[in-house]
Amino acid sequence: MKTTTNTTTVNLTNVNSKTVPNVPCVYTVKNIINHKIYVGSSKALYRRFSYTLSCLRRGVSLPKEMLEDFKLYGADCFELTFTEVEIDQLFYTEKLLVALNIGNVYNIYYASQKRTSSRDSQAWNERETIHRLRFVEGLKLKDIAEKVQASYTTVWRILQTM
């Protein structure tokens, strides 16, 4: 177990109530072989992650690619890293972590499995682009609206739904 400035990393084989607290946290599950991550947040991390780990072991309810990698590499090739955050910052921090790691997260594949049409896929890509421009590149709403050729109100609404 490694700990640095309020951030702790635990190998999945060592997850228990002593190594993972039951407090509000943003967490990542990292595949140490291909470096892909799954980003999540919870008001009670140990309870939530116990369920997530159970799903991984049973092969259900998580992104398909992550389940396949877990079967292929095993629990010892995955790490849980978590950072305690205030409850009102959970959602924002989780979305920011996803945006910062776009292209290297299991979360995106999970969302894409639920899509049924290319229109849904296009809408998801637009939402991710707007989110990245706002939270990663730090652009103002009017600049984002101009860049993606959408109204200020549309950009604002999209950011409110993420």
Question: Could you describe the 3D structure shown?
Answer:
Strand 3 and strand 4 form a beta hairpin. The chain is an alpha+beta fold and 162 residues long. The chain has a 5-stranded antiparallel sheet. The model is unreliable at 109-120 (pLDDT under 50). The two termini are 32 Å apart. The longest helix has 18 residues, at 118-135. It is built from 7 helices and 5 strands, in the order ββββααβααααα. Helices cover 49% and strands 17% of the residues.
Q: How helix-rich are the residues, as a percent range?
A: 40-55%
Strand content: 15-25%
Distance between the termini: 32 Å
Largest sheet: 5 strands, antiparallel
Global shape: elongated
Number of helices: 7
Low-confidence stretches: 109-120
- Structural class by helix and strand composition: alpha+beta
Strand order of the largest sheet: 1-2-5-3-4
What number is the mean pLDDT? 80
Strand runs, count: 5
Radius of gyration: 17 Å
Helix and strand run: EEEEHHEHHHHH
